[in-house]
Amino acid sequence: MRTPSIRTQDFLYELPAAKIAQHPLADRAASKLLVADLPRRTITDHSFVALPNLLPRDSLIVMNDSRVMPARLPMLKSTGGAAEIFLLDPVEPTPNPTLALEKGSPAVWNCLIGGKRIGEGDALQTADGRIRARILFKERNEARVALEWTPETESLASVLEHAGKLPLPPYMRREVEREDLERYQTVYAQAAGSVAAPTAGLHFTPEVLAALDARAIRTARLTLHVGAGTFKPVEAETVAGHAMHRERFEVTAEFLEAVAAQLDPKPHRAPLVAVGTTSLRTLESLYWMGVLWLEGHEPTHLDQWTPYALIEAGAHDRVSPSEAFRAVAEFIERRKLRRLVATTSLMIVPGYNFRSADILLTNFHQPGSSLILLVAAWMGERWREVYDHALAHDYRFLSYGDSSLLVR
Fold it and tell me: Domains plus CATH for the chain?
């Protein structure tokens, strides 16, 4: 299989620091909404509150309901020096973040470690001594950490609520403030486990959701726990040299059936709208998993380049989107599972063949990131025109920034 030989430098653009939103707007839905319609070759400016009137009736909107956990734990070394543990994903007692957060002491997590001269075997603790940590394995700033806390019966979620800090993105060079505790979560966040918000959903309010419902525009929820790798720049000269991070997702058979029904070929089919790159990446991963299931495989992980090999083999011509999503739903039902739990490392870059959504709702992303590569794959050469328009018309960028509705 040929991996894409796309140069990273071709997806850089100049982003002035003044354009990066450091705080949320007072009203979530007051953010700007750029609408880029590829078929019509138009770019127009709106407010996010207008979204219900910009989408056709009977559209289906797919949202990621993952909740950001307060993953940063300030700690002290035995010498009294400062340290920090940044929880990434659990190892024991379960690899499921939502379930792991509900468990009592002890636990083992993969983490990032902040602080000088910290190595394997070192012990850390919080200032009050309630949480203790031991470094089991460390390579550079990544580590596997054994955690204990008192009382042992208290859930890790409760412990983090008191001792942890919300992990704001690194480009917000400030401490967490009270407003972030509410505003760095979507209003529909449910399952805790992310270390970064699915930011395209931050603009929704109960009023916008009600207006969508009034126009017969339905919503469907999936869960993808956003990892710290979402902020990792693509540093390799070509995208083939970038190791894409693995993220965990969960979907129900009912969700898959709703998506399959929306994608069924029919005259005047209403669009499927993905809220954010996380929703789109999950939908695309599910399509390829469905293809693999129909070919007799039963994957629970999708490698970053597997879809490109399947595209080369013409699998996307043999299996329709609705067939693939129904294949995954049937797998869940046949195994009598409550939901499918799987992981994906899918990397979407220009040349990728999209098989699910018709419209992408997303914020404006960092230069040279895997997210800008996804947007370029979605928009083609017009991604620069869209970003130039946003920069020229004073749009706010990145997590707390404005939004775009990208229609293919």
Answer: 8-68+185-407 (3.40.1780.10), 72-163 (2.40.10.240)
